[in-house]
Design goal:
The chain is about 40% helix and about 15% strand. The chain is α+β, with helices and mostly antiparallel strands. It folds into 2 domains: about 1-120, no CATH class; about 120-175.
Length: about 180
Amino acid sequence: MKCPRCFAETGQVELKSIKVDRCTQCGGVWFDYGELRLLKDKEDRGDYRWIDLDLWKDRDRFRSAEQEGLPCPVNGTPMMTVHYGDSDIHVDICYQQHGLWLDKGEFEQIITYLAREVDTQSLGDYVKDVWEEFAEIFTGPEGGRSELGDLGRVLYLLQLRFAVQFPDLAATLRAIGRGTPGNV
């Protein structure tokens, strides 16, 4: 496979048990459809594993960026350059669902962006996300077990956000939870 950025050869590398094609010269990476989500979910800081930005399904959520017209390494058609979520990170995607291209360092930028998203969610945002994750147990792309893991992570983060926003109430609830019936 040829790099769409500098046209050098790519070589397969394994990142957290996901095989991707990396350019031997510029360090850019080609992710086949779904591989970016899988790699993101395997990151050690997985508080954001539940955030699934599907660049193909949720096209309306992504702002177009200045088009670079990089050729898809699978079929050579021009890829679309979009912003990843609300960030300024540019991602080049093949709308025929072959995959996406990230320049060197952009994966790390995406992880930093997602961590920031987790930190800035409000209590209301998390409540909404719980409902969405619950629905994805039955309809989500990852399968029931993985979607349950996502729901568990959102519930955990909801608990943390609640404790931050309402520390006195959270302490009272913890104290009640430690009590035994009749001793409350």
